Sequence to fold (180 residues):
Amino acid sequence: VLLLDHVFVVTLTGVLLFMCAALGHMMLRRLGVIDDSAIDALAFSVALGARLLATAILLAVAVVGVRESVLLEVLIGAGTSGRREMPLLPALLQQAAGELKHKAGKPALMLVGVMAIGMTIQAVAPPLGYDTLMYHVRIPTQFLERGALFVPEDNLHVAYVGLLHSLYLPLIAAQAPAGC
Fold:
């Protein structure tokens, strides 16, 4: 069962990351600012898409409330919005890997692969650190439990909760073991 929990977390996070990349790529294409560099296009697509999705989640839960149904509707809307970009992303990832291999060599590509594996292993571990337990996961979990955004009485760390913490909400709502 533990292995399936890890597969679930990695899959769910991968889907969320893929959705962010699709949203960001769509916006960059609409703005006409996609660079010739596949590495840059992929990095900026993920970063912009994560901000767009986090903003959409934050706005929706601020207006309607922090509920699983609201999160699901935002994710369906984001997936629908970025659906035309999704088929383009595997080729973009392959181009970025080829560009990295060409510009920095095979050792750099292997280093990125090792880092990705290391980050994946770290991502599936249960939360252990003080920061994670006190506000990265705890406060978004409290938002979900209460069904609203609020300032917890017993936790002044709420000031550290930023926009990207709203991306934790779908993972916590799905009861992903690494996010609970």
